[in-house]
């Protein structure tokens, strides 16, 4: 009788411990690869429907970001308050990268804004709200396209951000506090692999750096600066933080090499299920 009781107790402890381990592993995966299910996201450059608790902050890139999903797509929202980082993103582009094997290696990408199309004339004073609003409107008029690459055959290439072609959407705008809001929709059906089975899926948010000028370009810039040096004393050609020079370049940052560096944010997630 004692032998039978001992056997039953031992069996319970072994299988019970195994069950607790599985539950613990499941909980640890959820903690390690956070995910959130959110229905009703509207991709329009307005983050009012996103809860503040959903956002993470990345110090290097100076961005708040959130990644959620519904039953058919991923949604990303990025909030950038820093005007320097806003200009960097607008001039050079924001690239979303995905990897269904959980690696920091690009398989699929969505590029928006594309960058390289933001040449503008005139200068903006950081304190001039009217000038800032005009600049924002000019940017929005030029940011009508996005580029998707690496996805399944038939969905890649350039497309309008609002068309909803193949389920992709992207939007960008500014809120009343001058925070730049970026939103994007990436459908599950566009991926080459089953994203619902990926554990984890790696998502990268890359604010691309500017292309470093060639030595001959630097020489020409120095020569032009020498010829127009007196104009600088008259208040012309002066860039301000958050502003833009007459040729659309980012000015007023001295020798800050950060403009040439990619700001990278990586997050490993799993697809959330509706509760």
Describe this structure in words.
The chain has 275 residues and is an alpha+beta fold. It has a single domain (32-212, 254-269), classed as Immunoglobulin-like (Sandwich). Helices cover 27% and strands 24% of the residues. The protein has helices spanning 2-32, 83-92, 129-142, 215-227, 229-233; strands at 56-58, 63-69, 73-80, 94-99, 108-111, 145-149, 157-160, 169-174, 180-187, 201-207, 263-269. A six-stranded antiparallel beta sheet has the order 7-6-5-4-10-11. The longest helix has 31 residues, at 2-32. The model is unreliable at 5-30, 120-125 and 228-255 (pLDDT under 50).
Task: Give a summary of the structure in a few sentences.
This protein has helices at 2-32, 83-92, 129-142, 215-227, 229-233, and strands at residues 56-58, 63-69, 73-80, 94-99, 108-111, 145-149, 157-160, 169-174, 180-187, 201-207, 263-269.
> What would you call the structural class?
alpha+beta
Number of helices: 5
Shape: globular
List the secondary-structure elements in sequence, H or E. Answer: HEEEHEEHEEEEEHHE
Distance between the termini: 47 Å
- The CATH topology: Immunoglobulin-like
Q: Give the uncertain stretches in residue-range form.
A: 5-30, 120-125, 228-255
Query: How much helicity do the residues have?
Result: 25-40%
How are strands sequenced across the largest beta sheet?
A: 7-6-5-4-10-11
Total domain modules: 1
Share of β-strand residues: 15-25%
């Amino acid at each position: 009788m004692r032998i039978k009781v001992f056997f039953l107790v031992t069996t319970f402890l072994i299988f019970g411990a195994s069950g607790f381990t599985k539950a613990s592993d499941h909980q640890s995966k959820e903690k390690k690869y956070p995910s959130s299910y959110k229905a009703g996201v509207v991709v329009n450059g307005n983050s009012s429907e996103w809860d503040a608790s959903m956002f993470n902050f990345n110090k290097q890139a100076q961005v708040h970001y959130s990644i959620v999903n519904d039953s058919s797509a991923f949604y990303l929202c990025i909030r950038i308050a820093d005007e320097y980082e806003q200009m960097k993103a607008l001039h050079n582009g924001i690239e979303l990268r995905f990897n269904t094997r959980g690696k920091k290696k690009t398989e699929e990408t969505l590029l928006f804004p594309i960058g390289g199309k933001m040449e503008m004339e005139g200068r903006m004073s950081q304190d001039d709200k009217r000038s800032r609003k005009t600049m924002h409107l000019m940017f929005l008029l030029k940011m009508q396209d996005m580029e998707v690459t690496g996805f399944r055959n038939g969905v890649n290439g350039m497309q309008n951000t609002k068309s909803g072609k193949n389920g992709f959407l992207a939007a960008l705008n500014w809120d009343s506090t001058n925070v730049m809001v970026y939103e994007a929709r990436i459908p599950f059906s566009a991926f080459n692999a089953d994203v619902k089975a990926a554990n984890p899926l790696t998502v990268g948010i890359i604010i691309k750096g500017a292309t470093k000028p060639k030595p001959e370009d630097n020489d020409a810039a120095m020569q032009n600066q020498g010829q127009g040096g007196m104009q600088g004393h008259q208040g012309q050609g002066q860039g301000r933080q958050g502003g833009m020079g007459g040729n659309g370049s980012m000015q007023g940052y001295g020798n800050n090499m950060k403009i040439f560096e990619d700001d990278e944010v990586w997050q490993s997630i799993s697809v959330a299920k509706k509760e």
